[in-house]
Structure formats: structure tokens, C-alpha cells
User: Which sequence fits this backbone?
């Protein structure tokens, strides 16, 4: 049977600084934020346009898609675009 090693005693370092009350650093809840049943803050809902933009922005370098086409569509759906761009479609709506 292998021998058991003796555990070393606690280290000999003692922290020279004074203890600090860091309760003020904790993340607090703002009045406008909603909380779910588990206590986590909920994100505010985003618009459909912003949702589509985020999806397109994540897919720019996705294999199998035309990068230029996805960049053009992302530019059209960008919610920060000051010009309201009319979305052009190659196909009629369903």
C-alpha cells in the first residue's frame, strides 16, 4: 500500500491590509429592470428589426452564404441606420 502523505499546515502568509466592506460594489437592481422568479434580471425586449440585424451580423462569415449579400442585408436591417431603408425582396411576401 502506498504511504499517505502528511498534509502541510496552513500557509504562513497573513494579509497585512485591513478588511473592507465591499457591499457597495455588489450589482444592484435598477428601478426599471424586471426580475424573473429566480432573481435574475430580464433583458428588455428588442425590436424585430434589431433581432434580424443581430442574426445577419452573426452570419456574415458563415460558410455557404454569400458574404456580400449578407453584409448588404445587415446594412439594410441595421437599427442604427439613420435612413429608413425600404427592404427590397427578390420574392413576393408569402
Assistant:
Amino acid at each position: 500500500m502506498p504511504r499517505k502523505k502528511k498534509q502541510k499546515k496552513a500557509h504562513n502568509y497573513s494579509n497585512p491590509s485591513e478588511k473592507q466592506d465591499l457591499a457597495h460594489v455588489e450589482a444592484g437592481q435598477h428601478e426599471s429592470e424586471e426580475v424573473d422568479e429566480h432573481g435574475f434580471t430580464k433583458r428588455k425586449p428588442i425590436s424585430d428589426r434589431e433581432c434580424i440585424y443581430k442574426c445577419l451580423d452573426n452570419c456574415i462569415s458563415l460558410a455557404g452564404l454569400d458574404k456580400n449579400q449578407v453584409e448588404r442585408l445587415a446594412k439594410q436591417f441595421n437599427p442604427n441606420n439613420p435612413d429608413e431603408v425600404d427592404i427590397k425582396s427578390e420574392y413576393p411576401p408569402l
